[in-house]
Amino acid sequence: VSRLCDGAVAHESIVYAVFISFAEIYNETVYDLLESLPPGCKKRNPHNLGEDMNGNSYIKGLYAVRVDCASEALQVLEIGRRNLHFATTRLNHNSSRSHCIFTVKLVQMASKDTPKFARVSMFSVCDLAGAERTSKTQ
């Protein structure tokens, strides 16, 4: 296994790349937690769901960050966490008010020079908003 100049990892003729995305579902609207906001802008753009040719759902326009190691992936996670919606409830001082989906996508290509054959594997971790009783949280 060796590291290429562009950050991809190669094993013999196989090239790997890892991408991270982080989305939030807040009040039935999907937001990209990695989207950069222009200066002075406080509101994120909502994203829509789409469906690919195989009938799999995905978030249209979701930003994916290419990472080279676990520490970079953790940095991306922390950036996204800072963009989550939080509020105070009677049970928690700082409670997430949304669902979020953190996705790691591994792309494997047969060759860097002939990228037409690729295998994509995805792993998503979903954090669901608390289900506290409304009588306790108000």
From TrEMBL:
**Which GO terms fall under molecular function for this chain's record?**
ATP binding; ATP hydrolysis activity; microtubule binding; microtubule motor activity
Example GO biological process: microtubule-based movement
Gene3D superfamilies to which the protein is assigned, alphabetical: Kinesin motor domain (3.40.850.10)
The yes or no answer to whether the keyword NAD is present is no
The answer on whether this UniProt entry bears the keyword Phosphoprotein reads no
Extract the Pfam families matched here. Answer: Kinesin (PF00225)
GO annotation, cellular component aspect: kinesin complex; microtubule; nucleus
User: SMART domains, per this entry?
Assistant: KISc
Where, per UniProt, does this protein localize? Cytoplasm, Cytoskeleton
Instruction: Give the chief site where it resides.
Output: cytoplasm
Superkingdom of the source species: Eukaryota
The UniProt keywords, alphabetically, are: ATP-binding, Cytoplasm, Cytoskeleton, Microtubule, Motor protein, Nucleotide-binding
Query: Domain named Kinesin motor: which ranges?
Result: 1-138
| Family under the similarity heading | Belongs to the TRAFAC class myosin-kinesin ATPase superfamily. Kinesin family.
Protein's recorded name: Kinesin-like protein KIF20B
Source organism per entry reads: Hirondellea gigas
